[in-house]
Amino acid sequence: MTAPHPQINHTQPPLKADHGHIPGTAILKVTNLTVRYESGTALEQISFELNTGERMAVVGPNGAGKSTLFKIIAGVMKSEGSSVKVFGAEPRGHICIAYLPQRSQVDWNFPASVSDVVMMGRTRRVGYLRWPSNADREIVKNALETVGMQDLAARQINQLSGGQQQRMFIARALAQEAELMLMDEPFTGLDTPSQDELFSVLDTLRSRKVTVMVALHDLKLAAERFDRVMLLNHRLVGLGTPADVFREETLNQAYGDHIQVLVHEQQVSVIDDTCCGEDGHSHA
Ligand code: ADP
Ligand code: MG
Q1: What is the pTM of this model?
Q2: Which stretches of the chain are assigned E, i.e. beta strand?
Q3: Are strands 55-59 and 40-50 parallel, antiparallel or unpaired?
Q4: How many Å lie between the centroid of ligand 2 and the Cα of residue 180?
């Protein structure tokens, strides 16, 4: 048995004050969030709350605003007004949130080892102008154990498989002691065994009351493995249990005629009809 992970051990003095956590407030509360790029509106009037420890899937077609939503919540991008609250305060600078980018957006040729990257989670927490302490090294080691990568600590990041890359990001978020993890398309491009490994890490996170939001494409995975699902297409089309949200008419509202959705006894099948078909569907 490994020792309890320090990630949610609040009996230790905080290394850096958590920014304005207001007791009794939701881990995340989004109210009427609207985000516009020059090219158009990415998110419109989005409102929802997350409960501590829940695992929510965010699904919707390409360009629906999933990544934008995560970046706003993480404070990577600024929203108009103060429509996003994390523990009752503005998201910017919250050390308790970790944004895990899409793997395709990362320069994997950057010369770094797995433990270098995971240690970045400590650096974020305790500041740059300090050498890692033994306690930091121990936390990094525990984080790697949690994601089953203790034997890969010295490996260069460009030598990792997709599943290992994703689990390394989770280890970094654990080292940061994040309480809310926003994972952008972590399952995309992973084979089934790697997806299963990732889910077993997500189960561990759940047992530690870490709150997780996952953007994903695969409606079947969302339906089978998540507590709640959010169906997004610029607007919030549906939010609730998979059984509530994954109804044919709701899905068609989000995806339009780009896909054909079949729902049968809570099983969701998606038939992509954008590329083929003798009658030549047109989506111009
Ligand atoms: P998703 O992650 O669901 O695919 P995004 O949040 O990436 O959606 O994009 C939502 C919309 O905002 C899309 O129409 C996209 O083209 C646009 N968009 C995303 N990022 C930018 C940006 N940096 N500048 C301008 N438009 C953007
Ligand atoms: Mg995206």
Answers
A1: 0.86
A2: 28-37, 40-50, 55-59, 84-85, 97-100, 180-184, 211-215, 228-233, 235-240, 259-264, 267-272
A3: unpaired
A4: 18
The structural domains of the chain, ordered by start, are 28-251 (3.40.50.300)
Nearest CA to ligand 1 atom 24: 37
Residues near ion ligand 2 (Cβ under 5 Å): 66-67
- Supply 71's token pair: 């970046």
Q: Give, using CA atoms, the residue closest to atom 25 of ligand 1.
A: 37
Q: Which residues of the chain have pLDDT under 70?
A: 1-20, 82, 93, 128-129, 257-284
Q: Which amino acid is at 112?
A: A
N- to C-terminal Cα distance for the chain?
Answer: 58
Backbone angles phi and psi of 217, in degrees to 5 = -95, -30
Q: What is the pLDDT of residues 51-71, one digit of tens each?
A: 999 999 999 999 999 999 999
Name residues contacting ligand 1 (CB within 6 A): 37, 39, 42, 60, 62-68
Residue 99, class by beta-carbon neighbours within 10 Å (0-12 exposed, 13-18 middle, 19+ buried)? buried
Q: What is the DSSP letter of 113?
A: B
